[in-house]
Amino acid sequence: MTNINPSKIILKVRTAMWYLFFQTIGIWLLSSCEQKDLCYDHNHASNVKVTFDWEQYPNANPASMCFYLFPRKEGERTLKREFIGKNGGIAQALVGVSYTALGFNSDARNTSFRYNISTNSIEASSKDAGTIDRIGISASLLPRAKGTEGERMSMEADSIYSSASEKGILISLEENDRGDTCKITLSPERRFCTYRLKIMNIDNQQNLSSSIAGSISDLAGGINLSTGEKTAAKVTIPFAVGTTNKSTLEGQLRCYGNSPSEDAANYLVIYTVLKDGTKWCYIYDVTKQIKEAPNPYEVEIVLDKLPVPTNIGGNSGFTPGVSDWNIIEIPIVM
């Protein structure tokens, strides 16, 4: 029979207990180090309450708003949030990162938005114009005023409103630990202009069909949504025109305003397809009326005379896109 030594058993038990104790301490220390690395190597996220103040434009009612936080320091991420409706909501920002904020309505079907890395902002521009519904001809096939042939034919601007923060936004670690919510209020500003056209005393209006359109050249191709500065590119924008009574034509378009270029020359072109199918193009220089408008956001262009021919043929059809336009330049009498 084997003898059991109690002292050896006690020694083995103590050794095992010490081993388990040191192993537990080691695991705890490793866990603490990993937790500390996670805490200090990554920024905390904090809530930001975004409010859009529409006091200046109470009738504006966009369906959605886009909110950006641009980091002031290179290497940090740009943050973006979409809100349904026009009032705002809750976004998130990283603690300890300084940002500038930008908000604008994103319910814009005709608009392309481009991130400008050099200015850390968003630029808006209208998409290319397609077929002009009122006359059934592609915008690229329409005749132009001399010197504007190379301009991009652009769709009308959407009703864009935007606003940027004047000061930097920084959420400190102390504020985040206290549970403070950063609050940002932006007051959107109008970024689009409306040009209204009226041509009175139309000759032989009975010879006009419903196929009438217009275009204006040398308009701003886009706008910086943070600063409101217009981009350098020039565009020509086609728009719908219609008769309002026996001797008047009216129409209107939305744009980002006149080109900032000093040599901008704004030509209005009226495209008409008469009842006999012939196509007539009337060109007016409206530079002075646009540049001297009292309110650049609401421009009124009033003209006299549209010389529609007296005698027209019996042809009832026409071929869209064929370059057989009769072009007439109309001098402006002030």
Task: Give a short synopsis of this structure.
The protein is mainly beta. It has 3 helices and 23 strands. Strands 10, 15, 16, 18, 19, 20, 21, 22 and 23 form a 9-stranded mixed sheet that branches.
What are its keywords?
single chain; 334 residues; mainly beta; Immunoglobulin-like; nine-stranded mixed sheet; 3 helices; 14% helix; elongated
Characterise this structure.
By secondary structure, the chain is mostly beta strands. The protein has 2 domains: 45-107 and 158-190, Immunoglobulin-like; 193-330, Immunoglobulin-like, CATH 2.60.40. It has 3 helices and 23 strands. Strands 10, 15, 16, 18, 19, 20, 21, 22 and 23 form a 9-stranded mixed beta sheet that branches. A hairpin with a 7-residue loop joins strand 2 (64-71) and strand 3 (79-84). The longest helix has 36 residues, at 6-41. The radius of gyration is 33 Å and the shape is elongated. The N and C termini lie far apart (131 Å). Residues 29-42 and 315-322 have low confidence and may be disordered.
